[in-house]
Amino acid sequence: MEIIKSIALLDDVLNAFRNESKSIGLVPTMGALHEGHAALVKRCVAENDITVVSVFVNPTQFNNPDDLRLYPRTLEADCALLEKLDVDIVFAPDVDEMYPEPDTRVFDFGMLDKVMEGRFRPGHFNGVAQIVSKLFYAVKPDKAYFGEKDFQQLAIVREMVKQLQIPVEIIAVPIVREQSGLALSSRNMRLTEQQRETASEIFKTLARSADLLEKQSVEDTKKFVVNSINNHEALSVEYFEIVDGDTLQSITDWDDSPCIVGCIAVFCEDVRLIDNIRYK
Ligand code: PAF
Question: 3-state secondary structure string, 148-213?
Answer without folding.
Answer: CCCHHHHHHHHHHHHHHCCCCEEEEECCCECCCCCECCHHHHHCCHHHHHHHHHHHHHHHHHHHHC
